[in-house]
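Hi support team,

I submitted a single chain yesterday and got back a structure, but I'm not sure I'm reading the token output correctly. Could someone confirm the output below corresponds to the sequence I sent? I've pasted both exactly as they appear in my results page.

Thanks,
R.
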Amino acid sequence: MSLLPTDASLFDEEEAFNFTPSRAAGLQQLKRFLPMAGGKYAAKRNFDFGPTNRNNVSLLSPWIRHRLVAEEEVVDAVLSRFSPSSAEKFIQEVFWRSYFKGWLEQHPSVWDSYQNELAFAIDKVRRDTQLRSGYQAAVTGKTDIECFDYWVGELIERGYLHNHSRMWFSSIWVFTLKLPWVLGADFFLRHLIDGDAASNTLGWRWVAGLHTKGKMYLARRDNIRKFTDGRFDPGQLCTDYVPLDEQSVHPRKLLSVSEQMPDSNYILLITEDDCLGGLSFSKKLSGAVGFAAPELRSQLEVPQNIKDYTTSAVSNALKSVGASQTRVARNSDEVINLVKRDAAELGVSDVVAFEPTVGPIKSALMDVKRSLAEEGFNLHLVRRDFDNLVWPHADRGFFKVKKKLPEFLTSLSACRRSY
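Hi R., thanks for writing in. Yes, this is the structure output for that exact sequence:
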């Protein structure tokens, strides 16, 4: 049964939600959005006008998240039309995702702590009748908070929410409904097409007051009324806000040195975290296999639309590098078997994958790397230049990254490459 209103006119403009998991579709959306990336975006970006009126935001996050389109080519396209000052707000949003990736890479215990807390919370839902009732009401859109219930339906059916609505949703979940933040983060990660470990986990922690200690995001009635253009009035929300706290300490871990491309022929391993493939690789690319495992996001069920999107994204990326077969592994054992079979046929011992950030895919690849090494194969996790540029500065708050933006943009301009 649909959780969304049954008024068919609400969803006449289906094209706005055609998040086709291909590079061509992502580039087309970039072209469509480009005229809005300057002052118009800055003025209207915080408004959620509804699922069929998204012209005020880029809608690029599903393609950027899976790196069907690269961050630097988005920035490059925007700067070909606007000055850095005119497009400042949008450029900052591109770098926010990179900031979260770099921060989590340097504080990996946050991801481990999230997984442990989530396992505990899921078990408690099964044992605690009151918590189970509140959780079920939230995830089925039956809280009697009209906007929240609507967003639940939109998320489930569309796999997407406006960023401002994500913040309101998270705040209501934590402070008004008083549900464990990790359950809400898990709900998002399972249902968002653009969901990734870094942005999702740290976004929820930021709202709850854990990322920036003592500072949380408060969903307010007048703010929701204003920025939904009067579509919603949530009524009385909780005003007794106390930021969450935790006993865990998450010390900074120094970034590892990026591995280098091998000198010999290699097999390319395309993952759901990086589907740019080998569009600018050398002729040493001998073959390619894929790895899409959205099921690893949670011990709870991941919806079929998310499974289909990630698998199709990887399959399309394999086609883009001329792979004769679009073979997509769904777990570590399948990856190992595909690589070993191709390596034997092609006579190579090196495998290359672009390095994901901390999260389920990276954890799986580390296991794959160890297993392959035991059988004489080398998996090289190569970090992209954009990540090498931004991540070292993402060790504290976003302000440090923001201050470096002019330098980043100069570096990107000097190092343009084809994708």
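A quick pointer for reading it: The CA atoms of residues 97 and 199 lie 6 Å apart. Let us know if anything else looks off.

Best,
Support desk
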